[in-house]
# Entry
Amino acid sequence: MHMSKSSHTSQAQTIKSLSAIQSEVESINRIALSVDCVIFGFDENKLKVLLIRSDLKKFQGKWSLLGDLVDPREELDEAASRILKQRTGLDDVYMEQVKTFGSLHRHPAGRVVTVVYYSLINIQNHKLKILDNELHWHDVSEIEDLAFDHKQILDCSYEQLQRRVQEHPLAFSLLPKKFSLRELQNVYEAILNIKMDRRNFRKKFFAMDFLVDIDEMEQDVPHRPGKLYNFNYNKYEKKKKKWVGIDF
Amino acid sequence: MHMSKSSHTSQAQTIKSLSAIQSEVESINRIALSVDCVIFGFDENKLKVLLIRSDLKKFQGKWSLLGDLVDPREELDEAASRILKQRTGLDDVYMEQVKTFGSLHRHPAGRVVTVVYYSLINIQNHKLKILDNELHWHDVSEIEDLAFDHKQILDCSYEQLQRRVQEHPLAFSLLPKKFSLRELQNVYEAILNIKMDRRNFRKKFFAMDFLVDIDEMEQDVPHRPGKLYNFNYNKYEKKKKKWVGIDF
DNA sequence: GCAAAAGTGTTTAGTTTACACCCATGC
DNA sequence: GCATGGGTGTAAACTAAACACTTTTGC
# Structure
């Protein structure tokens, strides 16, 4: 086999001993790690995201995602849950890792690599627990600028949400347990920023057959009330399709 | 607005000063960060991945992905490119971040969080540069166990590849610039682990209209030679579709 | 009774699948 | 001349899209 003539200078890492790695791990090569949470909600027929005012002078007046440094004894997912719990009081929430952002100068305090999660919560079901730093909900479509690289992080998370919501039953996480088909359609329209045909939408979801008619109606609506449904996760798990097809 | 009665004990982080964050960033809260590369190739009609023997006694005899610690002054993408370049000599390679793995005890040297990238390279075009630690290609389908959590990382990367290859023109990165339709189909069949109809496959790709007939034929094949094509990335960029549809 | 949204089917267009025969080359 | 894979078209099944009127409720 042909052996390249190119230099071997950078192969050192391949023959490191455990103790050498250990000393690197323990000393020079450590980096601050944070978790940032993009917390999506749905209200007033709009997709919302939870923001606070940045603490830092450099970003004075700018809004920021919720995040914190990861403790070295803490799992990444746990850090994300902790941040979410602190701010929303919610525990059992849909959450997904998006991407890790590590630009050298993304944080003014030095090198901080951040692992980003997004989560989907049902706004109606809860009130925010701690309103420090003006914690509150913002329309995703109206956000122009955020502290740090958080606008880029939000855009990336939102794009991932748009992709995933078309292939997985995520929309239900943004709604109460009981919801009308109109509400469900509104979630899709808000996330994907499109209009859909009402009849075709209903047909599609009934055909999938994991909405359960709970025999209740909307209350206090100024028009004919709609039926309410539950999402049956077990039925979904059994029926979900293995999608194959080349399409781009 | 209703103010929750729940404890405020964990809100401390929201009012940290920059200097407080700075001292955390500089000291106690740092974590070793590595990058691992899942390097896919295609040969003998099989999807391959590049592995080395693990350096560590604990994993003696086990194969491992290629990775290294991230230098605090180095971008994550650069670290991934560096690892790839060291081992394959290749520069200009398709590469995508997959996910970050951070289980507390995934690495015997201590807490090491790892950012995983996969890349797609054309095996035919090159020979491996450095063969230390028995660096070589393995059939993805035959890998049973790897050092660290690398089997889990490989599975996750492979699943992501399977999803992405159906929606983006990645397959071309695994082939030489000139390829036959049969080779292209073989890539899809290997990645997705399915058989496809030859006529429908051809129809589909010709309809997409970004394969360029370069008016050359296969050489030295023991049967009727096929035409060779290029992938025209510009044409793809213009034509690619914005895909909408709920399907799960 | 009027405003507002719920509920409901059918037709058409487009896409995906299944399927079989002749052709060009190397040996 | 035979083995091997290249190259091609059509019909059937399925899926997605377009589209309008009647019903129920609150006011």
Remarks:
- The domain at 178-239 of chain A is CATH 1.10.10.10 (Arc Repressor Mutant, subunit A).
